[in-house]
């Protein structure tokens, strides 16, 4: 008789509006006010306080649009060295409970507590971690507890801000099936729209699809979607994960045939890539453009610099330069992607360039 499958204890900890909360902590005049970390003249919002989110202000939103949504919005210059320092304090707390820590960015991480419970439950440890974060940093964190990474991340979003939510093994599949497909980690807006075109609106709809149906329409990702619809995720928490690149891509409903429209589509991709680079404390020297044509041919073009890319605007300019000579094609363009690679820790020399992304007011 085979032994029962071992149940893991995974916690996902996510700081609440991290950048904005640090600014409100350090400046009492900002507490209770709608705050956006970023610039007002150009650029995008890096983070928004919960007071700002009530008006619809979100990260990656153009700053001018954010100001229209919330006329009283207060813009604050980013202080990435401070955010990194606070992040290090938080990770030191994690390390008191488990060596299996997989940071996703400065403000969130997975923890595998399976072999480090010491007679306690994972839920109890998650409560302790949240309490210690508040005590040490003065900030709040939300946490999700479950038996795999996918569900733990979903759980951490359930009671934000300053919340804790647990999804036990017996409730995993049912919980997933109750959610709209857009809530699934790993299902972006373009994929969600494609799923909706096939009548897949919820986890329950996804669970009704066969593996053959999903792989035929979503390729290798089909297996992942089939599994998560059933609450299955076998990915391990990888503490030594070295991120080699940061990328974003988008598939369009209609093939692009106008170069100006393609240039416009590169902008939100650059915003997303640079936002993740900043949050991860990374700088990169190589920009790669991915192009997939209407007939599914795919090419990449790259440019490497002798020093880190100076900011989001330079990265976007390089991507547009790479696109110009390869755009014209009778089949049109169905997908564009931008990747930043040759990564290194962003040090003092790169930090001022990162601040330039937000065009400080």
Automatic annotation (TrEMBL):
It is found in: Cytoplasm. Mg(2+) binds at residues 14, 107. Its cofactor is Mg(2+). One of its GO terms (molecular function) is magnesium ion binding. The active site is at residue 108. It catalyses: DNA(n) + a 2'-deoxyribonucleoside 5'-triphosphate = DNA(n+1) + diphosphate. GO terms for biological process: DNA repair; DNA-templated DNA replication; error-prone translesion synthesis; SOS response. Pfam families: IMS, IMS_C, IMS_HHH. Binds 2 magnesium ions per subunit. It is an enzyme of class 2 (transferase). Keywords: Cytoplasm, DNA damage, DNA repair, DNA replication, DNA-binding, DNA-directed DNA polymerase, Magnesium, Metal-binding, Mutator protein, Nucleotidyltransferase, Transferase. It comes from the Bacteria. The keyword Membrane does not apply. The record marks 19 as: Substrate discrimination. Its EC number is 2.7.7.7. Belongs to the DNA polymerase type-Y family. Monomer. This is DNA polymerase IV.
